[in-house]
Each structure stands twice: as C-alpha cells, then as structure tokens.
Amino acid sequence: MNRSSNNEIGGMLVVLGGLLLVGFAVWIMKTFDVPFGIATESGIKIIVWALAVTGALFWSHHSDFNVIKFTAPFMVSMFWYSLFPVLDYNAGIRDDFPIQMDINWYGTAFWQFVIFLAINVIGYGIIYYFHRRNNYYW
User: Fold this and answer.
1) Which UniProt keywords apply (predicted)?
2) Per residue in 28-85, pLDDT tens?
C-alpha cells in the first residue's frame, strides 16, 4: 500500500527530459557553433534517431530476424538527416535573411540527398555482397 500522495512521476519525467534536451542543445551549440534554435531542432531529431536505433536493437535482441544487418545503412543515413539543420546553418542558409549568398555545397538539398542516397546504396551494396558471397547459388 502506497501512502505517498505524490503521483507526479510523469511530470517529473517530462521536466527531466526537457532539461536533458536543453543540455544536449547547449552541447550542440558549443560543438557546432550554431544558435539555440538550430541546436534544439537538430537535438530533437538526434533524440528521435537514438530512440529508433534503440527500438531496432531491442527488436533484434528479441527476434530471430537480423534487424541490425538490414537497418544499419538506413540508420546511418537517418543520422545524416538529423544533422541537416546544423549543416544548413554552417553552409550559410539563414531563415532571417531574404537573399541566399554563396551557399556551400553541403548546404544544398541536392548534395544532402546525394550523400543520403550514397550511404544507403553503398551500405546495402556491402550487405548484398557479403550475403551473396556466402551462397553458392543464385
């Protein structure tokens, strides 16, 4: 029997999560030299990515299916996607400036997509190669 009248564990977890997000955003600010809004946006995406990776690891642990092998390239490319706000800011893209001047190559959507696609193609190509190398038939 619980005699404590404190049932605010959910609220405390929300406050703790918010404090961890702010701390993570401050670390991103100092590491990549970006403003707080950009660091928070990228931090939320990285946290969602980490939750997805944790879910894949949990699924792989409780399943006979090799989840890690088939999701690793996609997870790496999704980490690349979570860094887009930081890359855009460092490339010269600013939301408060109406004219974009001399944006670096890694800030354009085309090259971000090309790198995203290259990570997936190379990663799944390596998986395909090692999978077919162990089979003597096709």
Assistant:
1) Membrane, Plasmid, Transmembrane, Transmembrane helix
2) 999 999 999 999 999 999 999 999 999 999 988 888 888 888 899 999 999 999 999 9
Residue 5 carries which side chain, given as an amino acid letter?
S
In angstroms, the CA 55 to CA 47 distance is 12
- Distance separating alpha carbons of residues 137 and 40, to the nearest angstrom: 50
Distance CA(41)–CA(52), nearest Å, equals: 17
- What residue segments make up the domains of the chain, in order of their start? 9-133
pLDDT top residue among 135 and 27: 27
* DSSP code of residue 108: S
Place of tokens 């939301």: 95
**Location of structure tokens 């995203």:** 116
